[in-house]
Amino acid sequence: MKRVYLIKEIAAEFELVANRLSETEVATVASVVELEPQHLAEIAKRAQKLTGPKNVKLKTVIDKSLLAGIIIRIIEEFGALFIKARICPSKGGDRFQL
């Protein structure tokens, strides 16, 4: 019972190992508002093109300090990749422009 505080650390380490084994890259997406599922799918697709791993897992964060758009943060083994994007209106609905 004295080691219950370790559960979060163990879970985080397990997630890191599982992601490495499954070739999954975790990307954090910060935006002012909650993003629609179709926008998240587009972000994952574009992040996958940039990083090359088979899978991309998105973690979303609401950041009220942003004025508009999104920030995507991808941590790779040898560095970090930050991408700023904005939503552009188009004939088929809103689209992300990276």
UniProtKB/TrEMBL annotation:
GO MF annotation: an example: proton-transporting ATP synthase activity, rotational mechanism
Keywords: ATP synthesis, Hydrogen ion transport, Ion transport, Membrane, Transport
Subcellular location: Membrane
GO CC field: membrane
Chief location of this protein within or outside the cell: membrane
UniProt cross-references to InterPro entries, sorted A to Z: ATPase_OSCP/dsu (IPR000711)
Pfam families: OSCP
Source domain of life: Eukaryota
Annotated protein name in UniProt: F-type H+-transporting ATPase subunit delta
